[in-house]
Amino acid sequence: IGLNVTQICLTKECTEDEVSELNDDPRVHGVHLRLPPASLTSRVLNALKPEKDVDGISDLNMGRLVRGDLSKGFVPPRASAVMDLLEKHGIHLIYVAVMALTFPSEGTPFKRRQSMQNAGVADKFNCSRWLQAQQYQPWHLQCLKLQPLTPVPSDIEISRAQTPKPVDQLAEEIGLLPEELEAYGRSKAKVRLSLLDRLHKQPDGKYVLVAGITPTPLGEGKSTVTIGLVQALSAHLKLNSFACLRQPSQGPTFGVKGGAAGGGYAQVIPMEEFNLHLTGDIHAITAANNLVAAAIDARMLHEATQSDKALFNRLVPSVNGVRRFSPIQISRLHRLGINKIDPASLTPQDVSTFVRLDLDPSKITWQRVVDTNDRFLRKITVGQASTEKGQMRETGFDIAVASEIMAILALADSLEDMRTRLARMVVGTSRSGQPVTAEDLGVSGALVVLMKDAIKPTLMQTLEGTPVFVHAGPFANIAHGNSSVLADKLALKLVGRDGFVVTEAGFGADIGMEKFFNIKCRTSGLRPDVVVLVATVRALKMHGGGSNVSAGAPLPREYIDENLSLVAGGCQSNLRKQIQIAHLFGVPVVVALNVFKTDTQAEIELVCQMAKESGASDAVPCHHWAQGGRGSLDLARAVNEAASRPSNFQFLYNIEMPIVEKIRTIATKVYGADDIELSPEAVAKIDYYNQQGYGSLPICMAKTHLSLSHMPDKKGVPTGFVLPIRDVRASIGAGFIYPLVGTMSTMPGLPTRPCFYDIDLDPVTEEITGLF
């Protein structure tokens, strides 16, 4: 039946550490302690997890037995035999505990034989119950009550007023097993990927993507809509639902945009934990990324200052008189066509080929990262100290979420897959024109060690106590801007066939949604059932001809006063176009109008009417910011209805199309361009990628999010333009080609007055103020 029960049979003293190792080993399903009486101390017995105590002799299991609670843990075989005998004679189970604890271990051969037979029955009973616990468990979600206030307090005040459930309680309510949880404090926990193996036969739930129209610089509230929707589905319609969100970068948190936990009465809590550090995934990415950068510069220095022989002797050192290649070095030898494993058998030419990556300093594409908006790191010079022996070069920093390792985290579907992707990351080109990878540097094994915990999604909850996975947060321009494949897959198993997983895509539908479909869905094999398209009256007014909107500046008068003409113009242009883009992929669209207090009833009704006329399955106003899940009930019902209809999902392009044609397809069909124009550099790069065998990768367009075109100031639906492709780059580990449309910054800068002016900590209560 696939169970692995480990027996500890020792004559020496047993330690708690030995027991703890078995507790943490997912391959061990139960432990049978066959130890001398002197070793069966309370500390040893109670070090064993109750769910692995097949003898049922830990204090907790015994206590449950005495109380008559047989729903959890294991029952001792002897006690189970007694219960069976007593029940056959109609004796109430209240006496079982005493009988079980005093049942003699010695006696006649018949008694011993009978005891062993009954113990066998009990073992079958325990195994049967263990197998039952491994199956999908119905949810028993205890939602938290909301009492919305008017006027709506600040986000952090709302978050702090609600006490989240302990994360282990939330995990139990949604069917997670204790061994699948790794707690980080009281309110968040990592979830182990072993869940996918346990529930691999469980049908997936419904898959919902939240996208948006082309946004203003203020953002239109996709995260808030996502959270309001799941609160409505689970807390009010009593349908299982999971939100899957991106982890925010600390760059915008301390810059101008603020956090990304939602807002008002539709938030992930505790919001300060969500926005600051979380479980350290971005720090792990930073460490891994910068280890690669350090390895690049160190390798170039050593190759420039040492002979082939000296390099070889240091790369393959003699230990106790014996030289051995490490596994990663043997892998490199095989890629070079050198099928030898004895260092002494290499020829001088073999040695030279093996030890020299011969990186071209002008063609290194890998940069260092930091999770802070720091404009002065965009271009730097490294190697200026005399110890670096003149090995100076220009490079720069990106913000951490722009690292290719972040994109890999978001697209990997297992630890093994992540290891493979990290290994094939291209960090630069040799002087002979060959790509140099992280595997060539010998660093890929260390990278997966740094990332082994980051690959597990983090479980949190909304203000109404519904579950949320927070995992990954790749840049939405040079990367695909979606949360992780693994979070979505875990959630789809947990919600059950009739449940919903709601995830979001960065920026407008022309960018985040297109990449979600063509890159993420192609990688994951998952197919969406519904698109929720978020719109706001203010963004529609902007696309209808309103004046420019700037973050931090007061809104112009037309955005505060009723203006049906501007609203209609935005609906006829950008809203209609974004609905059409979703229909290119064969997915039904529900428009969610994120209502602000300045919106009038006439404006709201006009948007909903015109959205339906433009092809939306439904269009509803949403008041989750002020009311929580109750304010998104109409949206939840509309999504439930749309998800019940068949989805005819299709990709926009065939992956085997030439790179140029894939770019042209996105530019003309999604953005509305007449054609594309490739720079000479872009043409050369495409030729190079085709030569290297990268031509069948999907396309990840890097362009402005503020317009359907490449011109940020062109709102609505620009026409009559040719899309310029300035350069074409590749993230081979993540698995996509990214053309650069115009100039893209991968390191934001701080504004004149950043958010950090308002952020502080009370030294007595340790309460944080100023986050939003």
UniProtKB/TrEMBL annotation:
Pathway annotation from the record: One-carbon metabolism; tetrahydrofolate interconversion
Provenance organism: Cyclopterus lumpus (Lumpsucker)
GO biological process terms on file: carboxylic acid biosynthetic process; tetrahydrofolate interconversion
Domain of life: Eukaryota
InterPro entries: Aminoacid_DH-like_N_sf, Formate_THF_ligase, Formate_THF_ligase_CS, P-loop_NTPase
A Pfam family assignment: FTHFS
Keyword hit for ATP-binding: yes
Protein name in the entry: formate--tetrahydrofolate ligase
Subunit architecture: Homodimer.
Enzyme class, spelled out: ligase
